[in-house]
Amino acid sequence: MADSLIEMTAAETARKVNARERSAREIVDATFEHVRRIDGEVGAFLTLTEEIARTQADRVDARIAAGERLPLAGVALAVKDNMCLRGTQTTAGSKILEGWNAPYTATAVQRIIDAGAIPIGKTNLDEFAMGSSCENSALGVTRNPYDAQRVPGGSSGGSAAAVASYESMIGLGSDTGGSIREPAAFCNIIGFKPTYGRVSRYGLIAFASSLDQIGPLARTVEDAALAYDAIAGHDPMDATSVDVPHESTATNLGESLKGLRVGVVKEYRAKSLGSAIDDVYAKAYADLEKLGAEIVEIGLPTADYGIATYYLIAPAECSSNLARFDGVRYGLRIEGNDMTETYDRTRAAGFGPEVKRRILIGTHALSSGYYDAYYLKAQKARTKIAADFENAFGACDVIAAPAAAAPAFRLGAKSDPYSMYLMDYYTIPVSLAGLPSISVPCGWAQPEDGDAEMPLGLQLTAPLFGERLLLGAAHAYEIATKHSKKHSPRIGSGVVGRALGVS
Amino acid sequence: MSVMKSAPATGGPTQSVGAVWEAVIGLECHVELKTQSKMFCGCKNEFGGEPNTKVCPVCLGLPGALPVPNKTAIELTIKAGLAFGSEIPRFSKFDRKNYFYPDMPKDYQISQYDMPLCKGGVVEFWLEDGSRGQCRLTRIHLEEDTGKSTHAGSSDGRLSGSTYSLVDFNRAGVPLMECVSEPDIRTAEEAVAYLETLKRTFVQLGVSDVKMEEGSLRCDANVSIRPAGSATLGTKTEIKNMNSFKSVRLAIESEITRQIELLESGGRIVQETRGWDEGAGITHAQRSKEEAHDYRYFPDPDLVPLEFEAAWIDELRSNLPAPPFKRYVRYVDEYELPTKSAAQLVENPVWEVLLDGAVRRGVKPKSYANLLLGDVAKKQNEEGLSEPVATFTIPASSEFVKLIEQGTITSKAAKEIFPRIWSGEITDPAEFVKREGLAQSSDRDEIKKFVDEVVTANADAVAEIRKGKDRALQFLLGQVMKASRGKANPALVNELLREAIGGG
């Protein structure tokens, strides 16, 4: 009984709760029962917000009873723990914020709650969203629901794992260089990063302000569209949030790709990710064509500079954004003999190695005498990369590419930070250009280091503010291919453990 | 070691034994803007209050909070620049100035680096002796104020020796305008005159309250000296912690003297920051250039670049009232008022309309200025007003002053009539004076009658006068004026009184 409730999509759930066939309260109860059963192994959550969830569920049921209809009525929601939810611990996966209770709620979180979603808990992430595997979290290990020995991706790995293992129906993540799309690909779900500025960043703990964007993780494109519709739109509390009218995407989901010009990137095709993976993407492009799309080859000559560019801009911004974690007002404080020593000790103990590395890189890149050579140059490269995309969109409507450079790897396999950075090779240029982009499951392949097939994601990218077109295309591809249904999660018990025969 | 003369009170090079030195001074002023809310959040912008009560996630720099710029603060800063003829570039932006300090919530300050709101401009000022000077502005930019630290556990409230510090963030995020001058100032007196122009202008434009004691104006001075006539600049020091115009003057004078003494004794000036110690009357070294921060400025990615429409800037410019210095110049050059009166008149911008209106009606500027600086100022003061009441009109007050000018009424009668001009009770003073028979009288017989009455009734006073005590004469004069309801021509009264008493 419980299993069927948690397996429902968000769309289905909202329909049933709005029709009063199901109550938000029963969904919450079933969800927590499931979470308690399996999250010890998955490790998606850092904090469970059971009290808030039940209060919100009752409020939703009351609103429905009063005749309201809510687009996400009773939908179980996982919130990445770098977003503030009033009264809950909000850590950004860091020791420096462990135990800090947010006194206010992020705009996106408030909007999705107002739309009827029920926050189940706060999910694990790479510390301050810096990483691609969740392994940089200082507060917990999250495992891939399809192979507990593998990472869920990152940095929104907790939300991705929660959605994939049915611990929630939708999740909120944040994407700076791929942090929604890569874990979505690793966990066989949908991950959608909207255009920069579409969703308010107010209440999202900043990593790199000019790149950070909140977006949904979901098991279907329709669910992602519903969640996106709930959170998108101008926010007077965020000066970078754009005042462009938001049109519903959930009501515009197509079933055909007829007439759509899909660009495949010449430079990417020249690179092999291994024959099994290459085959999956070749098949994906062929499937797009079968659905009526016209495949055109496009060039992104500067995309190769994406990682170098990103690893100057993002650390520069983070070196400044993370300065406030100094032990003075909140979070960890380790006393020294004077203020400077207190800063030093607090930050030395509070930040993990990857965060420190990026603060150092960024501080250096902004230093007097180096600014022009590093930060300014990177900004110029960013402009060129964005121009490349704009140019490419002259010949196509969406661009198709891999969402990650490999399927989910084993925990601990990437000890060298640079090899981790390369995971985001395909997502980073898109982030630098601020474009809307989605990862949709597109097939399975045997990883180099294992026998069991792991999921792969197809990244589709549209021009600025092209969310309706993008989600429409992703939906048509999804319903025609249904790659996500080939394997079930192999972790835990109950529905998620079925494939392993665990009960 | 030579014996030093202190820096001169007025302009010009400083003469000391063996050399003539010239000081070169530039000022950096931080001015808190008079807005309803803070620079990047909705918190109230008010001085004081219980510590940490005017705060929110944004001005406390809580994780995830974002700044949204205050449009009024941007407008006030542009107005300030326009008042001094600054160029207002069409594009501007905010940058982050990165450094760690406990009273700075984000450990960076949102400021402006290379694209300030205002560029250039000239601050003109006058000195007490009536001479005029000017100082070019480098720029005016907008930033956010920090919180305020209180160091406890030490005897003198200083950081050094304190055992703990408290931070009040009520001030954090208050809009702060920084005005940077070129090194055009040569004396401490000019520095103060420059500051007075800034203060007067900002107060009158409604840009700031400019209360130094509340910290809404804070000033740092860059001071160097060089041989008079030299074109190169000497090594400068930056003086901080000056809390009043008086301390600005004293600190600069003291620093000039220190530098001269140092150079004349064979020493070298070190580029450093020096704090002004008001009690000791000296500056002391705080931080050398080597310890200077690398602020790692970069454009704030939380804020979008600013672009202004030329029409909006033009509108601000055309709606700007005449800045005080312009009025001062007009009063002195055009109205030929004494510099002291002009300086006083300038303090009240509303008076300009009254004065100009009266002059258009043929009143002498000086006569009307006397009314404003006398009776009007007194009334405003008594009633706690910043400007005359609405019932005080240009036509009535102009006619009133004309009656005084022409000698139609005595100053005594004027004093009696004024309150009814103020209250609007009298709209036609000439008619009123005629109706009430208050016109000055030079009728010898009529006045003689009053004089005789007064002399008879005040035999004691008369006796005093005869003993040579002239003060009693003033008393009798007053009595006669009173008896004549202020109408009597005072000169004639004086003459007739002396005649009646005799021997005077």
Structure description:
The complex is a heterodimer of chains A (503) and B (504). Chain A has 503 residues and is an alpha/beta fold. Chain A has a domain at 2-254 and 417-423 and 466-500: Amidase signature (AS) domain (Amidase signature (AS) enzymes, Alpha-Beta Complex), CATH 3.90.1300.10. Helices cover 39% and strands 13% of the residues of chain A. Chain A is built from 18 helices and 11 strands. The radius of gyration of chain A is 21 Å and the shape is globular. The model of chain A is unreliable at 497-503 (pLDDT under 50). In chain B, α7 (351-360) packs across α9, α12 crosses α14 (471-483) and α13 (459-466) runs antiparallel to α14 (471-483). The A-B interface holds A 82-84, 90, 92, 97, 100, 102-104, 106, 201-206, 208-210, 236-240, 316-317, 319-320, 323-326, 328-330, 339-340, 343, 363, 366-368, 371, 375 and B 57, 60-69, 96, 98, 100, 102, 105-108, 165, 167, 294, 296-298, 301-304.
Layout of helices and strands:
The complex is a heterodimer of chains A (503) and B (504).
Chain A: H1 2-7, H2 10-18, H3 24-42, E1 45-48, H4 50-65, E2 76-80, H5 107-114, E3 118-123, H6 157-164, E4 170-175, H7 181-186, E5 190-193, E6 213-218, H8 221-231, E7 261-265, H9 266-269, H10 275-290, E8 294-298, H11 306-321, H12 339-350, H13 353-366, H14 372-392, E9 398-402, H15 417-421, H16 428-432, E10 437-445, E11 454-461, H17 467-481, H18 494-497
Parallel strand pairs in A: 2-3, 2-4, 7-8, 7-9
Antiparallel strand pairs in A: 1-3, 4-6, 5-6, 5-10, 9-11, 10-11
Helix pairs in contact in A: 3-4, 8-17, 11-13, 11-14
Chain B: E1 14-16, E2 19-32, H1 71-83, E3 91-92, E4 95-98, E5 108-111, E6 118-119, E7 122-126, E8 132-144, E9 148-152, E10 164-168, E11 175-181, H2 188-205, E12 217-227, E13 237-242, H3 245-264, E14 272-277, E15 282-288, E16 298-299, E17 306-307, H4 310-318, H5 324-334, H6 339-346, H7 351-360, H8 365-383, H9 394-405, H10 411-422, H11 429-436, H12 444-457, H13 459-466, H14 471-483, H15 490-501
